[in-house]
Amino acid sequence: GAVVSQHPSWVICKSGTSVKIECRSLDFQATTMFWYRQFPKQSLMLMATSNEGSKATYEQGVEKDKFLINHASLTLSTLTVTSAHPEDSSFYICSARGVGGGDTGELFFGEGSRLTVL
Amino acid sequence: GQNIDQPTEMTATEGAIVQINCTYQTSGFNGLFWYQQHAGEAPTFLSYNVLDGLEEKGRFSSFLSRSKGYSYLLLKELQMKDSASYLCVAADSNYQLIWGAGTKLIIKP
User: Fold this and answer.
1) Contact (CB<8Å) B43/A34
2) How far is B71 from chain A, CA to nearest CA, in Å?
3) Is-contact A101 B31, C-beta < 8 A?
4) Using the 8-state DSSP alphabet, how is residue B97 labeled?
5) pLDDT in tens, B51-70
6) Do B48 and A112 touch (CB under 8 A)?
7) What residues of chain A lie within 8 A of the CB of B41, using their CB?
């Protein structure tokens, strides 16, 4: 199946700093990428939908100025957590949907990035 | 509103069969997914149904009834490694994904 690579897998940062997480589709072009957050023992929560070349659509309650999403190419989307605070500590996961006909809607997930803010 | 209902937790025995049910309510419908998620890992795609009926894929099968807003995931010949959370996810008319909270499946020897 298609591969989505997410980097970094683990990141620890100080409160007030910014952290960038990358999501790359390695062997296909992704017109749409999704960013999720998962707190311990809870389900995935969709944060935003990112379409290549346009602004991301954020879910209600997600601060777009805090969670900056850039989808500059068909193979790369980035999530930047700005001025991170301990409550932003979470597991962040991206997924991508491919281009082309026969789209079954199948999503391919990155490995996830665990952010710990001290 | 849009929502997904699935049991919080289920327990089954190694080698047995288990069925995880899911009901959904969405604005329009573009298919239903099942994902498996082991603790601390990203979800893994299991199945996608958009037409009524049963789709079989090895030990796992998924069923959909659009008129009833109902799906189930059937796991046969359970193995210890099947212990995980199983997420039911529906796509609405805009392909927005509505996630269930997941069913934690515990497999006992």
Assistant:
1) no
2) 17
3) no
4) E
5) 999 999 899 999 999 999 99
6) no
7) 111-112
Q: What is the DSSP string of chain A?
A: ---EEEE-SEEEE-TT--EEEEEEESSS-EEEEEEEEE-TTS--EEEEEEETTSPPEEPTT--TTTEEEEEEETTEEEEEE-S--GGG-EEEEEEEEE-SSS-----EE---EEEEE-
Amino acid letter for position B45: F
| CA–CA gap between residue B72 and residue B31 (Å, rounded) | 13
Residues of chain A neighbouring B40 (CB-CB closer than 8 A): 91
Which residue of chain A is at minimal alpha-carbon distance from B101? Answer: A43
What pLDDT, in 10s, does the model give residues B13-48? 999 999 999 999 999 998 899 999 998 788 888 988
